[in-house]
Amino acid sequence: MLLKTKRVNIxxxxxxxxxxxxxxxxxxxxxxxxPFIYMITASFRQQGELYxxxxxxMPREWHGHNYVKLFGDTNFVIWYGNTIFTAGLRTALGVYFxxxxxxxxxxxxxxxxxxxxxxxxxxxxxxxxxxxVPLFLMMRDFGxxxxxxxxxxxxxxxxxxxxxxxxYIESVPDELMDAARIDGxxxxxxxxxxxxxxxxxxxxxxxxxxxxxxWNDFLWPLIVLHDDTKYLLSIGIATMDGPYDVEIGAIMxxxxxxTLPILIVFILMQRQIIAGLTQGAIRG
Amino acid sequence: MSASILTTREKxxxxxxxxxxxRNQRKVIPYIFLAPFLISFLVFxxxxxxxxxxxxxxxxxxxxxxxxxxxxxxxYKGLDNYxxxxxxxxxxxxxxxxxxxxxxxxxxxxxxxxxxxxxLMNAPHIRFKVLARLAFFAPYITSAIVVGWIFTLxxxxxxxxxxxxxxxxxxxxxxxxxxxxFVMPALIILGLWTWCxxxxxxxxxxxxNVPDDLKEAARIDGxxxxxxxxHITIPFLRPxxxxxxxxxxxxxxxxxxxxxxxxxxxxxxxDSGLFxxxxxxxxxxxNFRMGYASAIGYLLTAIILLITGxxxxxxxxxRV
Amino acid sequence: MxxxxxxxxxxxxxxxxxxxxxxxxxxxVGVVRAQDEEISIDxxxxxxxxxxxxQNLVDEIWSEVHPNVSVELSLTPYSDLWPxxxxxxxxxAGIPDMVDIEISAMGQFxxxxxxxxxxxxxxxxxxxxxxxxxxxxxxxxxxxGNIYGIGNEVNPVLLYYRHDIFDExxxxxxxxxxxxxxxxxxxxxxxxAGHGLFAISTQWWGDFYxxxxxxxxEFFDADGNVQLMSDLAVEILTWQQEQMNxxxxxxxxxxxxxYALMNEEAFITVWGAPWYQGFMKxxxxxxxxxxxxxxxxxxxxxxYATVPRGGTGMGITxxxxxxxxxxxxxxxxxxxxxxxxxxxxxMNLFPSYIPVWDREELLRTDDYFxxxxxxxxxxxxxxxxxxxxxDPYWTLFTDSVLRLAVQPVMLDGADPRTALEEAxxxxxxxx
Lengths: 284, 320, 431
Hints:
Distance between the termini of chain B: 46 Å
Distance between the termini of chain C: 52 Å
Strand order of the largest sheet of chain B: 1-2
CATH architecture of the largest domain in chain C: 3-Layer(aba) Sandwich
Order of helices and strands of chain B: HHEEHHHHHHHHHHHH
Radius of gyration of chain B: 26 Å
Radius of gyration of chain C: 22 Å
Strand order of the largest sheet of chain C: 2-1-3-12-6
Largest sheet of chain B: 2 strands, antiparallel
Helix content of chain B: over 70%
Oligomer: heterotrimer
CATH superfamily of the largest domain in chain C: Periplasmic binding protein-like II
CATH topology of the largest domain in chain B: MetI-like fold
Structural class of chain B: mainly alpha
Shape of chain C: globular
CATH class of the largest domain in chain C: Alpha Beta
């Protein structure tokens, strides 16, 4: 194993250079942050202010009425609960299954391996919209229309996540697994006690991606959920965009509050997630 | 299964179940590991994909009433749908060209910026690293609906933030979503915001995997910084390039939610914001042409696979 | 107002008429239920204001007369309601009892005779048809003679103008009888003062259709043949292009931006159906007393002074197992004084239910419109309004018109005749 001693970089340091580099990073951060800031400040504006001149990032006056409207006139809290429930369940199952499949591709030899992997990649490319109607017919036959099963189960194992897991699990040293085998560990035991702990950062990444995808999924839950008390956040927010009157401030408030938990989860898990993305895995 | 069984009885030829298992476990286990994926894949992807493939040779004419079991009235059309798409349908062509333009814009503009950002973040003594990572990841995990809303406000011609910012530099604003010449730039800006930072995190991952001693060795041999970058760093980033280019490509052709929201369920002036999946959706769900929509889906998949294959081939050549 | 109160007897009468007339009685689902049986009917809609109106109606009226029938109203974003319905229709499962069918979304599901997912309401409606203003209440939802929806509003397009600015500029709005006079009268007056004369949308086919329809043009004839390609269509589109190029017409902006432009006085006249009045009041409250309305200027002596635009009709699905109850709900919403007046109060919608047209409430002066009586305009206009021939391919057609005729002509200076031809080719290709 390599130990990082000191880094060699292609861009030499130097005081002026460093200041310039720092400011470039800062500008990048700012440009990325501005739309979010605009969303947040928009949610505190008076109706109509977003469409008036001059355009400002900060509200002229801070108002909370969009939030009052959101909690008073809509089922926002119910949608929120529904979304946390479905996204949470789907994430837990989805991550586990993706890791299992990733391990199979990364660490085992079996017939049709390449063919299966091609299948995984192929599903990345077939637009979901094509499957919509046949899938809905299936939900009818399963009796899953207007239930959360229809939101949680189909597509729970995402090809992209398997792909990611495979990449990470590949870097788990074979010697470690072989040693465990010599010690008599079962393959499931190896998976649970060696692979999973070593790829924990990757699990974090896949978890957050799955959670976010479910949290943000729109078209499918909209088609399968009929009762509006079962709606998820994404659908609920969209219903606030009436064809004749748009409550842009309340929509921005809802957008802000619906993005918040994901950002908080990310900040809390940042070390894991960033480690998952940046370290890749242990190199042998 | 305890440790002793495997080690002590490995060579004993008992035909018990546990014995069979201990000998064949490694052959069987991948299928068990794959089972949840395979079952879900077969049931929820292959089967509906097959149904859609069948549908792609039909024309849907009307509904069968629920009393008779539901479903649709079909008329077999052979390859008509595909032939029409390939030879006659101008809108499909527009959608593919838009997808390609977006893909090229994404790769050419986004990749150098993402790589540059990653290099900066990988440099020693750089501050704001934690903040930058948070900021760069945040757009990626924000709902497309939310992004659509925010950018509807930002791209507004008269009251939009972007035009207001431009006017501070004395540049006159444009109709980002209403002038067809600016629709693609607007979408590329949106794509840049959403994915550039995310991709730079992947480059950063790649950069941190470049073995330091290799670069060290090259330096000791007298290689210049540029040469080290070109001959050691970049080749090590190859998998990241493959990943970023291919996901970017697939993403470009599959773009749906953001333009759909920006153009208020339309396709922008002169179809300038029309993407293949949007066209599929319009045909299947506004024009009730589900067979044709399925054909669009399959043709699009074929095109994406073809381009992906070519890309992989190119990357393979690069390795040599 | 006791005669308006819906009594239980009224309901029984209506229900039995409906049963007898409809032939549903013969179906197993039509068996008359024990009165106390708990039933639930549902309606899928897309408009927040209609949702609020119906919820109000359920709370205030329906729950008293039909305590055993609960009504579930569900709201789906406009452009997503139709895919959702389509999936349910295809599967034959999860189909609601009732649908709020927006006028433009009428066509695509009823293309094939014999496989329509909506039930014809003709027999249920029976003689009550005479109580309705046909161009607004049933015509837009009538395909092959079958009425699939009942619309509750009379929707003549009227011209709204800023009388304060006209006065300032010394212009007399009543003088121009024709569109040409209307545009010429302005000279450089309005534009010199920094106002556009008129707001028109380049993101919608409807503003072209309104002037075209007014001149006697039609998209389809009653048999579904395309009527667009005519010298008249070319003439109207050319005329609109000229106004756009000269700055007489300005882009109206969409959503909130439209009302922002209105508040900034970027335009001083605009047209809209009565529902638009409600949104003017809501989004530009400060302009109260500055607006007035009049009929549309004409093209020639054969022009209509107004044309209907927009509207949403309530329909029943063939899959519904509660057709009588659903019809009863639709009837109370649209064919009673209470239901239709509630819509007026909640949404500023002038009822398509004729028996209430002389109600004082509808004919009241309106301060927003400087003391005019909008109701009088609407009731009078309703009599001479053009009718729309809705076609199963309507949405497809309007989409082609917008993409290939209106936008290229208004935004990119395309030749109107070529553009219209292209729009029709595109439509025929996709049909």
